[in-house]
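User: My advisor, Dr. K., asked me to get a structural model of this assembly before our group meeting. I'm new to this, so sorry if the format is off. These are the inputs:
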Amino acid sequence: MAERFANRRDIRFLLEEVFDVNSLTQYEYFKDHSAETFNMVVDTVMKMGSDLMYPVFQEMDKYPPRYENSQAKVHPAVRIFLDECGRGGWLNADWNYAEGGQQLPNMIKFTYWFVFSAANYALGAYAQLTAGAANLIREFAGQEIKDQYLDKLCTGKWQGTMALTEPDVGSSLGDLTTSARETDQGYYLIKGKKIFISGADTDGADNTVNMMLARIQGAPAGTKGISLFVVPKYRINEAGELEYNDVHCDGIEHKLGYRGCPICQLTMGENNDCRGYLVGKPGRGLGYMFQMMNEERINVGIGAVAKATAAYYAALEYCSQRKQGRRPGVKDQSLPMVAIIEHPDIKRMLLLQKSIAEGSLSLALQVSKYIDLIKVLPDEEEREKYSLLVELLVPVVKTYPAEAGIMATSAAIQCLGGYGYCQDFPVEQYYRDIRIDPIHEGTTGIQGQDILGRKISLGNGKAMQYFVAELLAAIQSAHKFENLQAMAAQLLQSLNELRSVTAYLLDLSAQGKIEEFLADGVLYLEMFSLIAIGWQWLLQAVKANEILQAGSSLRENDKLFYHSKIYTCRYFFSYELNKIYGLVKRLSSTEAITVEMEAKFLQV
Amino acid sequence: MAERFANRRDIRFLLEEVFDVNSLTQYEYFKDHSAETFNMVVDTVMKMGSDLMYPVFQEMDKYPPRYENSQAKVHPAVRIFLDECGRGGWLNADWNYAEGGQQLPNMIKFTYWFVFSAANYALGAYAQLTAGAANLIREFAGQEIKDQYLDKLCTGKWQGTMALTEPDVGSSLGDLTTSARETDQGYYLIKGKKIFISGADTDGADNTVNMMLARIQGAPAGTKGISLFVVPKYRINEAGELEYNDVHCDGIEHKLGYRGCPICQLTMGENNDCRGYLVGKPGRGLGYMFQMMNEERINVGIGAVAKATAAYYAALEYCSQRKQGRRPGVKDQSLPMVAIIEHPDIKRMLLLQKSIAEGSLSLALQVSKYIDLIKVLPDEEEREKYSLLVELLVPVVKTYPAEAGIMATSAAIQCLGGYGYCQDFPVEQYYRDIRIDPIHEGTTGIQGQDILGRKISLGNGKAMQYFVAELLAAIQSAHKFENLQAMAAQLLQSLNELRSVTAYLLDLSAQGKIEEFLADGVLYLEMFSLIAIGWQWLLQAVKANEILQAGSSLRENDKLFYHSKIYTCRYFFSYELNKIYGLVKRLSSTEAITVEMEAKFLQV
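Assistant: The format is fine. Below is the predicted structure of the whole assembly, which you can bring to the meeting.
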C-alpha cells in the first residue's frame, strides 16, 4: 500500500514558491489570512485524508453502495466525512464572512479538493457535489430557498446533487424533457426521469437536494426553455418537518470505477406530488448551470490529477522496494538484484506519471490563482484578462489530466507488473476510477469543440493573445538560465506551431467549413494541452533554478527536490511536448477524412 | 449488447484476399486442404463463439472462479468448451497426422484463436494454455511422458499451464528458486512456490498439467541451471489411477479483468511428495520455453486484437443506434436528432479502433503466414528470411495491439459515454480484460529491449534488411494507384526515419553506451510498430483497390467494404502513423535523462 497519496512538499512548492499564494493576503478580501493559516488548512486536510479517507479507499470500492428497499445504502464513512466537512467549513470556505464562509482563496479550496480526491475520490465527491449545489443556490436562488437549504448543505447534513442527464439526453441538454407544471402554491410539479445522478440517493445524509433542470410546460424547445429547480428528496412541510417529495430512486448503476458513490436513476412525480422550487428566472436554467460549469470542470480535472498523483506514489513506493534484475551488462547472477527503480524504463514510466500529475496540478493552481485575482484586482482590464484566460484554459484543466491520466495510471499498473493487475494493490482502482473523468461534466469531445469552436476566439481573439503573452513571459524568464535555454526555445517553437495550426483552422471556419474546422477538436485540445503543461513545467523549472541559485544553505533533500523538478521538466519536453509534431501533421492536413467518410462505410 | 464480436467478412478479406491462404495448399503438408475446408473451420469456430462462448462472456466476469476447500471452482462453461475443443481437434489442429493433428496452417490456427478470444477471452485462455503445454511436451519430452499426457491434453480432459513466475521472480527468470531433487525412481522431487499461474487449479478439467521451470539441486545459478518439468496436480500411479501429487493451490488472485480464468498461487512439495518429470535435457528448460515463446507472444497479441475488435463492434453498434444532437450549424431543436455515428468525432473514435484492430490482425496473420512458409518452403535462404522476419516482428505483434488496444478500448468506452462506464454494456470489461496484455508473456519493457537489443541486429542486420525489403515492395505496389501514392510516399519517409533512428541508436551501442542505447526501447518499439501497421494498411488498401478496379459487378456491400479499407488506411496514416515524428525527436535526442537521473531524485 502506498503510504503517501499526495506530496505535501510539492503542494508547498506550487502554492508558495511558484504561485505565491501568500501574495493574495495583500488584498482586502483575503487580508485576515497568512502563510500560517494557509499551511494550517493544508495540514488539516492532509490529516483528514490520512485519518478518515484513505483508510477506506479500497473498502468503499470493494463494498459499493447497495440498492435496498428503493434506497441506496452507502458506506458509513460518508456520514462521518460530511459531518467533518461541515464542522471544518470545507463546503463553503471560499464564501464571504456574511455568507458563513471563511474568505479562503480558490487556490486553497482547489488544493483541499485535490487532497480529498487523492485520498479517496469517491468519498470526496459527496462533498464536492454538496458544495456545488450550495453554490448554485447561493448564487441564483431567492432568500426563502437560501434560508431553507444553505445551512443544511453547508453543514453536510444534506447531500447536494446536479441533476441534468436524462435517458436519451446526455450531451445535448437542449433536448431534455423533464417537465415542470406551475401551481399557485409557489412551487412547480415536476415529472420525468433523470439518470447518472451522482449521490442522488444516500443514507449518508438526512436528505438529498437535487439541483435539477426541467422544462416549464409551454416553454420553448431547446436550451432556452430550460429552468433550474431545487427538487429535494424530502421537502419541508408547513410544520417544518421533512416529508417525502415523490422523488424515487429506481436503481443505481454498476460501474467500472468510482464505485464508492452511487450513480442513481430517479423518477420524479410518479404520484404527481413532486415539488420543485424555481431557482432564479424561468428559462435561465442552463445559463445558471454553465456559470457554475467552470468550477465543476476544474473539479473534475483536479480529481483526475489527484488519482494520477496517488497512483504515482503507489508505483513509486513499489518500485523503490521491489528488487528485480541487474544493471545492463551485469551477467553475474550471484550479485544481488537491484530495486527496479534503478532501471531506466521504470524511471521513464515514473517520470511520465510525475510529469503528468505535477504538471496538471500546476496548471489547475495557475487557473485557480486567476480566479482569485478576478475577485480582487481593481483594474477592469486585468480582470477581463484573467477571465478570458480562465475560460480558455478550463477545457485543458479538465481534459488533460483525465486523458493523460489514463496513460499515467496505466503506467502505474505497468510499474507493478502482474501485481499491478491485482486488487491487493491500489493502482488498478485508480485506473478504473480515473476513466470517468473524460466522460462526466462534458466529454472530451465536448471540450475539444469548446476550446476550438468557442474559446480561442473569445474576446475577438484576446483570450489567445493573453495566453501567448503568458507563455512568452515564461520563456523570457527561462532564458536567463543556461540549463533551460533549449527548453525555452522548444516551447517558443511549439507555440509558433500552435499559432500556425490555429490560423489554418480558423481559416476553414471563415470559409464556412464548420464540420472540417471542428472535426479534430480533440486533437487540437491535446496539442494545446501539451503546450500549456509545458509552460507550467518551465515555470516550475525556473523557480527551482532560482531557489537553487539563491540558496547555498539548502538542505540535501530540498536540493534533490528542486533538481527533480528540472529533471521532470526535461522529461516532459523531450518525451511529451514533442508529441505535438505528430498532431501538427494531422491538424494541418487538408484531408477531412472523418467528415468526408459517410457512416455507411463503417457499417459493413 | 454487441451482436458481433468479430467480422467474418474481414477475416475472409485478410485470409483469402490479402494473404491468399489457399496458396498454401500447393505444398505437400497442406495439400489435403482447400478453400472449402478453411472456410468450414472459420465458420465452425464463429459458431462456437456465438453459441458457447459469447453468451457467458459477461457472466464469467461477474462470477469469477471461487477458491473453496483449497480448490479453484470455475464456470461450468469451461468443461463444456474444453470438451468441444477436444472433439473438434482445435487444441492441436496444426500438428501432423501422425501426431493426431490435422495439418492445418498456422494462419488458420491463429484465426480461430482470434475468434475464440474475441468471443470470450478468459474462456479461450483455458484452451490456449492447454495447447501450449501439449506443444512443449510434443516438442521436447520423451515418449513415456508423451504417452501419458498428450492424449489427455489434446482431448481437453486435462488442463495445461505454464508455470514460470515465482514470488520474487517475474521478468528475471534466471533468479528462480523452485528446486528439483533427483531420485532413483525416474522422477525429481519438486519444492517451491509459483505465483500468477493461469489455470493452475480448476474443476473444469480432471487434472492440471503444469509445465514448470525449476532448478535441479547443484545446478549453476542463472538461466543455465533451469530445467523443465511436467508437474501434474494428480500423477498417474502404478495402477494407472490418479493420485494427488502434493501440488497445493494456496489461493487465487482478484484481478482487474481476465476474471473468468483463475490465476493461482501454488506450493509444491509441502509433504515432500511432489514429483516432477524432466522434459528433455537438464539445464535446457529456459531454452525450451523460449522456443515456444514466439507462439505464446503471438497468442497474446491476437488476444489483444480480439478484445479490441469485440469492443469496436460493441461501440459501432451503439453509435449506429444511439441518437443525440444534430449536425453542426443545425440550430432547429424541433428537427430529429441524428445517430451519433454521424458526428465526425465519433467517426474518428471508431476509425481509431478499426485501424488498430484490423491493422494488428493483419500483421498477426502476416507473421502466421511466414511461419507456415518456414514449414514448407524448400529453399533454405527463403526459410531463413521468414524466420528472421518472424523473430523481428513478434515483439510488434505482441505489443502493439496490447498497448494501442488500451487506447482502442478506451475509445469504445468514450463512444458510449456514461453507458460505457457501466457494467450493463460490455465495453468496460474489454477495457479491463485487455490491460493484462502489456504484462503477461513478457512486459512491454521486455519487448522493447528485445526488438532494440536483439532483434534488429539479428542475422547481422539481415532481419532488418528483409523488413525494409518487404515494405519497399508494398510501397512499390501502392504506387500504381493514384489514391495511394501520397501514402506510399509517407510510408517510405517513415521507413527512412526509422533507419536513421536505428543507425543512431546502434552507434550508441557500438560506443558501449548500453544503458543509453536501450533506455527508450519501448518508444523505439512504438515507432517500429506504427510503421509495421502502416505497411499492413497499405497492403490492405492495395488489395482493396485491385478488387474495386477489377470487379465492376461487385455487390454494393462489397464496394462499401473495400472503400472502408481505403478510408481506414487513410485514417491510420494521417492520425496514427504521423505519431512517429514526436518519437523521432525523442529517440534522436542526445539527452539520456532516464539514465542520467539517479533514483534518489524521485524519492523526495
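One thing worth pointing out at the meeting: The first strand of chain B starts at residue 66 and ends at 68.

User: Perfect, thanks a lot.
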